[in-house]
Amino acid sequence: MTFNLYPSTHKREVLFGIIFSLLAAIGFSIKSILVKLAYVYHVDAVTLLSLRMAFAVPFFLVIAIWAWLKHTEPLGKKEWAILVGLGLGYYLFNYLDFLGLQSISAGLERLIQFLYPTMTVILAALLHRRAIPPKVIAAMILSYIGIALVFVHDVSLSQGSIAFGSAMVFASTLFYAIYLVGAGHSIERMGTTRFTAYAMIIACVISLGQFTATHPLKVLIQPIPVYHLAILMAIFSTVLPVFLLTAGIRRIGSGEASLIGSIGPIFTIYLAHVFLNETVSSLQIVGSLLVLAGVVAVSLNSRTKLEGIS
C-alpha cells in the first residue's frame, strides 16, 4: 500500500510560510520603536539608516558569498537589472519611512505602512492577471477596519508636520509593496537566499552612498546608545525578518504573506505604550482584536503559491 505524502507536505509548507511571515512582521514592527528611541539622541534619518545598513551589510555579504558558491549558474543582465531596481525600492522604502518617523508617532506610522497589503494584493493580481479570492478580500477588509480603529485617535490635523510625515510613510509603503511583488516574482528564478542577499547588499550600498555624498564622516560619531539601537535594528529588524519574509513569500505568496503581516501594528501599539509612553485606548483594543481575526482568517485560507510563484 502506498501513501500520498504530498498533502501533509503541502500543509507543512503553508504552516512554515505563515510562521515565517508572522516572525518577520514582529521584527519589522520593532524597528519603529528602535528608530523613535534613537531619535531622542537627535540623530538624523540618513545617518541612522546608514548605521543600520552598515551593521547589516557584513551579514548579507557572508550570506551572498555562500549563495554564490551554491549557485553555479550566473545571473543574466535582466536578473541584475531586477535586483538593482528592487534594491533601490527597498532602500527608498526605508529612507522615506525614517523621514516620516521624525514627524509622526510610531502608531500612526504603522497605520499608514499597513496599507501595503492592499497595494500588494492589487499589484500581484494585476501582474498575474488573476482575481483576488473573496475570502482574502474579506480578511483584508476586516484587518483594515481594525487598524483604522486602533489608530483613529492619532489622526489630528492640529499636529504640525503630520501631513509631511504621513506623505513620506505612504510613499515608502508603495515602494515596499512593489518590492514584495517583485520579490515574489523573482525568487523562484534566482533562489531565495541569493535574491535576498544581493538585493539587500544593493540597498545597503545605496544607503551608504547617500550618506557619503551628503554628510561628513564625523557625523558617524554618535552616543553609544545610538550604536546599540542601530545594531538591534540591523539584526532583528533587517537581516532576520528580511530572510524570514522571503521564505514566507516563497511558501504562501506575496499577497498572503503581506496580509498575515498585518498583525504587526498590534506589537507596535503595545511596545510604543511601554517604551514611548504612547497611549492605548479602548478603540485600539477593539481594533487589535479585529486585526487578529483578519490575520487568522488569512492564515486559514493561505495557499502555497500564487500563479507564477512555486
- Count of domains: 1
Radius of gyration: 19 Å
- Summing up helix and strand content along with how strands pair, one would put the structural category as mainly alpha
Query: Any low-confidence stretches, pLDDT <50, length ≥5?
Result: 1-6, 302-310
Total of DSSP H or I helical runs spanning 4+ residues: 12
Q: What is the strand tally?
A: 0
Distance between the termini: 29 Å
Average the pLDDT over all residues and give the rounded result: 82
Helix content: over 70%
Shape: globular
The major pleated sheet works out as: none
Strand content: under 5%
- Elements, N to C (H/E): HHHHHHHHHHHH
List keywords for this structure.
disordered C terminus, single chain, 310 residues, mainly alpha, disordered N terminus
Structure description:
This protein is mostly helical and 310 residues long. The protein has one domain (11-300). Helices cover 79% and strands 0% of the residues. The chain is built from twelve helices and no strands. It has helices at residues 6-39, 45-70, 77-101, 106-113, 116-128, 134-151, 162-190, 192-214, 224-252, 254-260, 264-276, 282-300. Helix 2 runs antiparallel to helix 8 (192-214), helix 2 (45-70) packs across helix 9 (224-252) and helix 5 packs parallel to helix 7. The two termini are 29 Å apart. Residues 1-6 and 302-310 have low confidence and may be disordered.
